[in-house]
Amino acid sequence: MSEQDTGPIVGIDLGTTNSLIALVDQGKPRVLKGEAERATLPSVVSWTEEQLLIGDAARDHALDNPENTVYSIKRLMGRSLGDLSDAERESLPYQVVASERGLACVRVGERTVSPEEVSAIVLRELRERASRVLGTEVTRAVVTVPAYFDDAQRQATRLAGKLAGLDVLRIVNEPTAAALAYGLDRTRDGCVVVYDLGGGTFDVSVLEIREGIFRVRATAGDTQLGGDDFDRKLMARLLDQRARDTTPDAKLLQAVKRAAEEAKIQLTDVDQVTYEVRDERLGLDLTATVTRAEFEKAIEPDVTRTLECCRRAIDDAQLSKEEIRAVVLVGGSTRVPLVRAKVEEFFGKRPYTGIDPDQVVALGAGVQADILHGKSRELLLLDVIPLSLGIETYGGAVAKIIMRNSPIPTQAADTFTTHVDDQTALDIHVLQGERELVKDCRSLGRFHLGGLPPLPAGMVRVEVSFLVDENGVLNVSAVEKSTGTEAGIEVVPSYGLTDDEIARVVQESFQHARDDFSAHQRIDLRNECQTMIRATKKILGTGNHQLDDGAVAAIRDMVQEVEANLDQEDTKALKALYDRFVEATVPLAGEVMSEVAQKAIQGKTVEQVLNESQLAPAEGGDASGEDGLHCGDLGDGFHAAKPEGATPPEEHA
Amino acid sequence: MRQPELGEDHFQTLGMAPSFDVSSQELSERHLSYSRRLHPDHAGDDPASRAKAVMLSAQVNEAYSVLKDPFQRAEYLLGLEGGPAASEDKRVPAGFLEEMLELRDDLEGHLASGKQERVTGFREFLEGRLGTLRDELRDLFAVEARNLPEIRQTLNVAAYFRGLLRDLRDGA
């Protein structure tokens, strides 16, 4: 056993809206807190020109930088562009594009970023948090997914973990994890329903708890239904107020989404809310009023859809509603009063809300991590596969080989034969879904069986084995029966990435992104330093200032030091140098300021002022106009972006 | 891929004798106790023992899934006894297909009506028919000299009713 194998295992709830990390500490699960003692990390990533923002910082930035702020990325995990509805795409302020293989990706500046990479950034942040809190490197995790995630979505989640430097020991279904946390809270045996309505997904699972074993009897859900849909209803109300000819841009959508979210939350406690968005750029002032009754009417169809899933899950579990002992609510959207009321009405009992619905999944993931660590042997989760697996048969039909709600791990085998003489290869198309036709199911991949012996048609018999592991992930193997040889299988996944692609992404993506980023920062810092060196030299060269010789010498030394270290590859060191440079030149900046302030009224940049001014040496012409230096920037720390145009004078005050 | 330590068939896998008449309670308890012993989550970190636990556990789960459903159980038993597969013998009683066509029309009518009580009523009818078919299978397996073609035909009929029930549930 390697050193690594003895380290901690954490549980991570990688949510549509928020993510959390937890582990079992002295026999009890607890969530690990990050900055400002907050347990939840918003699943938001924002690429600004200076840096990569994650979590609260990214979310706070969303309004300023909507195109480059990515949230709800979970909705895109393991999906193709064609899988997304127009409404979904339109509600996302960032640009969703197709990768070479047609998978949904996000366009950020010049880069195309996969949902796996975005999720990896969030996971890495949580991993670093845990490493900090625990004082030891964390490399192993249990990550939760909606129960109704298909194979491609699970694979994508696992890959995200890998990109974040995490060995994902186990993918656990969110409602099952929640049940585990619930079961620890109340230890009576019986059947429970977990109703999990998150930001973007809905899951319902029916479990039987018996002597520490949590056996899932059935699960159902909708991976495209959640609190975001409620927000969308309120967003539409606000957007309807605008003139028809204004197209909402990313910035407006982001502001409208924020206002809608807040209105939704307020409607939990009050009967009527007025919410508004002002956008001076577009000359818009949107105001809408919504009563709770109106809101409830708008979301009722969505809530009804969740109850239909509940009915199906109970049917599949071969239980009646009366046999359900408790209903556990999970996910922030279960705070909506209509949701609670409808669930209570449907099951005829008051739902259990004893555990924070935002934390219960992470806590359960922590418990599962503890089980894998061999510490909670009395507990065991027995989960199921949410969707049936099948193979394409003649005429575009699907033959089911593993039925939905089968306990996992599970297996099935099927025998295939050749159709023509001397056929040496077979293609098998694997699908997931409940429908009868290939076109209505989700293609998981095509398996190419090569190296078959050339025999008359029908003589070759290949037994293909399908194994769904404890993570709900499919593995395929095949044996040619007449010769007993293992047939060579080449897997071409329809959604997930090929091994080569994974290797490439692992290499390129995350670390690379940071490297890219860091390199970008360095270039900006260097440019900024050079501009300041030129400006400083110009001022000092004229001698037209009030500084004494000592102060001038100190500044000259500083300039020399900066020039000598401009090729510094360490971004942090360069930033520190830059900060000191800015500080050292403050007295000089003050000297220039009074003149600049006057000139700026005429709409000129500092650079222009310096160039025109009597301060500028006659020969001084190496400064290009683009490198304009904002005087407002002189004192305010980190600003690597290239400024454009003049700073309005009032900002100088 | 079958692990010999768990036996040759699904019944042996769960330590039971082949029979149509199995108690669902007993099956459930055996599934839990075998899972507790074999599940990969309890297998530790060693990749080889984990891989083996996945295989064994998959086998136990497959056995449980097949045996807990009376129709799948009957189908499996029929296979063990050398009876014909569904693809080899598709016979149904005379007039049955006509009845199915009528029932399918009924189903669509009930669904289109949007009336919950009509859907529920039809569902109870289908469940009743399936209950009768299950009892017939029990009787057919109870005799020493099994009439395998008769069992096959009963299962073929059951498959139609199960399809109707599934479509009713998915459509409701």
If you had to describe this structure to a student in words, what would you say it looks like?
The complex is a heterodimer of chains A (653) and B (172). By secondary structure, chain A is of the alpha+beta class. Chain A has four domains: 3-225 and 299-382, ATPase, nucleotide binding domain (Nucleotidyltransferase, domain 5, 2-Layer Sandwich); 227-298, Alpha-Beta Complex (Actin, Chain A, domain 4), CATH 3.90.640; 389-498, Sandwich (Substrate Binding Domain Of DNAk, Chain A, domain 1); 510-652, no CATH class. Chain A is built from 16 helices and 28 strands. In chain A, the strands form seven sheets. In chain A, strands 1, 2, 3, 4, 11 and 12 form a six-stranded mixed β-sheet that branches. Chain A has a five-stranded mixed β-sheet with strand order 18-13-14-15-19, with helices on both faces. In chain A, helix 12 (510-542) packs antiparallel against helix 13 (549-564). The radius of gyration of chain A is 30 Å and the shape is globular. The termini of chain A are far apart. Chain B has two domains: 4-68, DnaJ domain (Helix Hairpins, Orthogonal Bundle); 96-171. With 172 residues, chain B is mainly alpha-helical. Chain B has helices at residues 10-13, 24-38, 47-68, 70-80, 96-113, 116-142, 148-171. In chain B, 27% of the residues are buried. Chain B has seven helices and no strands. In chain B, helix 6 (116-142) runs antiparallel to helix 7 (148-171). Chain A binds chain B through residues 1, 5, 170, 210-211, 213, 215, 311-312, 315, 368, 371-372, 374, 377, 380-382, 403, 406-413, 434, 465, 467-470, 477, and chain B through 1, 31-32, 35-36, 39-42, 44-46, 54-55, 57-59, 61-62, 64-65, 169-170, 172.
Descriptors:
heterodimer; A: 653 residues; alpha+beta; Nucleotidyltransferase, domain 5; Substrate Binding Domain Of DNAk, Chain A, domain 1; 4 domains; six-stranded mixed sheet; 16 helices; 28 strands; 25% strand; disordered C terminus; B: 172 residues; 2 domains; globular
